[in-house]
Description:
By secondary structure, the protein is α+β, with helices and mostly antiparallel strands. It has three helices and ten strands, in the order E-E-E-E-E-E-H-E-E-H-E-E-H.
Amino acid sequence: MAIDTSNxxxxxIIPGDTVKWTRTxxxxxxxxxxxxxxxxxxxxxxxxxxxxxDSKAFRVVVSAQTTQGDALGSYDWRARVTNxxxxxxxxxxxxxxxxxxxxxxxxRSHARRALEAIEAVLEGRAxxxxxxxxxxxxxxxxxxxxxxxxRRTKYQREVAAEEGKSGPRGVSGRIMxxxxx
Length: 181
């Protein structure tokens, strides 16, 4: 199955995947000698990507072998065109190098892991009758159910924010006010 090439820069890259896109810049056509390059930068890493001319457009292909070495994290990027002595920044943005499912370790966020752990505890017990007990010198404590529910709501909101959604049951935390006569 062929993957369509996008006409915009990616918002996410997964190490080990091939990344392709085409960019057309009416004021700086490749056919007029302009060259397009990208710079990705964060506090720890810097990558350069060079586009190739494709008629009037620019084609970017980053191989799976190249992306395999990309460090995880968020990157600011800028696209620049050059032609002889002229250099212009034509676009900027932000992208994430996200872990692949085959990456070592747990790639879920802290909020997602905490929410799933709280929900597992809630499913495993119906009451908080025993708050603490001791077996063979080992003392175990439970978090009361009302506190677990409070923490679950907190982490539901964090996970929803990570996923770009509103909080639990559609609660976004915004208060709508209307002024009128």
